[in-house]
Specification:
By secondary structure, this protein is mainly alpha-helical. Helices cover 67% and strands 2% of the residues.
């Protein structure tokens, strides 16, 4: 392990990497229950998607560790799964088999542009101020997820999407507050593994309160234990079905022109969203972990991106939506994870979760929410290095930072940040500072937003 992962060179130990990998897993373990819930709305079997989610996450995360030696974790992406179920299958009317075919094609496209080094060029084209803004924006984004999961924030104003305080007297909120105070105390006393300890301790307190004192805290199991064999049988109903969806995806029933527009719309949405979710997460978490070089570039980024691309296509074959790098990787990095061994541990735990699904249900959202809030605080520190006195830097950085949590999308935060960066530099006569790649993708994001405005996406 020392020779392969270069532990001493990266200032870490096996114990630290194991704790970091477990911390990352527990902060993102919710996806193995949430993803089946969302994709079942498209008509897919819950148990089959559960298994596909665990396997796709394991493949992507383990490949990341092996190919890049970075502590990043992957799984089917939130937002991307909703786009799959509610837009592609719902609004656009495709079957889940055709949607899986689109995911497979997008994965193949990712593999091609990764092998040709295009994705690496894209990462290196992002200016350092925007990279710092991306890190801070992701920090706010995951802190918002944590606050909502904890019940500390809600939308109490008659359903209007305006955030306000949640019910702070609810059992879930009180448990999350307990976890937050505990983790803060452990961090202040510099206790090693404080985030992981916080998750386990809060989960134990929650289990005692719910099962011992009948306090409802949402701790439950999805009932997969009794039907474990049935889930594997159902897995056969989704495995390989992406290939049967190609006929529908590329059907010319409404005319060749309409087919091209429709398929292009699906693929550009999946490609842009996954690409910039992954790039944004890699840049943001890498900045937090100190992995960027003196030029602000991420060495060996190609390996992590190739793992993401392969996992997307593999996930489509198994029966799940697009796989992407998770912002929760920052939790493990904050615990000291510095090498691919962290990813290996996380990936193995996804495989183990196939057998221990009921145990995973004992970790409530209120236990992991404080970790997301703390990691968000840590990541926002990159704001201090942005030159706020320079409006050509401050404006696009501000847009990037605030639009991630406000639009609830890492990709939209990056896209709007790109657009404003190009506009500000253009208006101030500094167009020579704009990398050609930024011109290209700013235009691509504009097309995407125009299509959204036309109801085409």
């Amino acid at each position: 392990m020392e020779k392969f992962f270069k532990l001493k060179q990266n200032g870490t130990t096996v114990r630290t990497e194991v704790i970091a990998g477990a911390t990352t897993f527990f902060t993102m373990a919710y996806i193995i229950f949430v993803n089946p819930d969302i994709l079942s709305a498209a008509g897919m079997d819950y148990g089959a998607v559960f298994i596909a989610t665990c396997l796709a996450a394991a493949i992507g995360t383990i490949l990341t560790g092996l190919l890049s030696n970075y502590p990043f974790a992957q799984a089917p992406g939130m937002g991307l799964n909703a786009f799959f179920a509610f837009t592609v299958c719902g609004v656009m009317g495709y079957s889940w088999r055709a949607a899986l075919a689109a995911v497979f094609v997008s994965g193949v496209l990712f593999i091609i542009i990764t092998i040709t080094k295009l994705r690496q060029v894209i990462v290196n084209a992002i200016p350092m101020p925007l990279k710092r803004a991306i890190a801070a924006g992701i920090g706010l984004f995951i802190a918002l997820i944590g606050l909502v999961n904890a019940g500390l924030l809600d939308t109490p104003f008659g359903g209007v999407p305006i955030i306000g305080l949640g019910d702070l007297s609810s059992p879930s909120a009180l448990l999350a507050i307990f976890g937050l105070v505990l983790v803060v105390a452990l961090l202040c006393f510099k206790v090693k593994g404080s985030l992981f300890i916080g998750i386990i301790a809060t989960s134990l307190v929650g289990a005692i309160l719910q099962f011992g004192f009948k306090v409802e805290l949402g701790i439950s199991t999805p009932g997969l234990t009794a039907a474990f064999g049935d889930s594997f049988k159902a897995f056969g109903s989704t495995f390989g079905q992406c290939f049967t969806g190609f006929g529908e995806l590329f059907s010319t029933g409404e005319g060749f022109g309409m087919m091209i527009v429709s398929v292009f719309t699906v693929l550009i949405a999946m490609t842009l969203t996954d690409m910039f979710d992954t790039i944004g997460t890699l840049v943001g978490t890498a900045e937090k972990g100190g992995f960027l070089d003196e030029k602000g570039n991420l060495p060996r980024a190609g390996g992590a991106m190739l793992a993401d691309a392969v996992a997307t296509s593999a996930g489509a074959v198994m029966g799940t939506s697009t796989v992407t790098t998770y912002v929760e990787s920052a939790a493990g990095i904050s615990e000291g994870g510095r090498t691919g061994l962290t990813s290996m541990v996380t990936g193995v735990l996804f495989i183990v979760s196939l057998i221990l699904a009921p145990v995973m249900g004992l970790v409530p959202g209120a236990a992991t929410a404080p970790i997301l809030i703390i990691v968000g605080i840590m990541m926002v520190s990159s704001l201090k290095d942005i030159k706020w006195g320079d409006l050509t830097e401050a404006i696009p950085c501000f847009v990037t930072v605030v639009m991630m949590p406000f639009a609830y999308s890492i990709a939209d935060g990056i896209g709007l940040g790109f657009i404003f960066y190009v506009l500000v530099k253009l208006f101030t006569g500094k167009s020579k500072e704009i990398h050609p790649v930024l011109w290209l993708f700013s235009f691509a994001f504009l097309i995407r937003y125009v299509l959204m405005g036309m109801g085409k996406i």
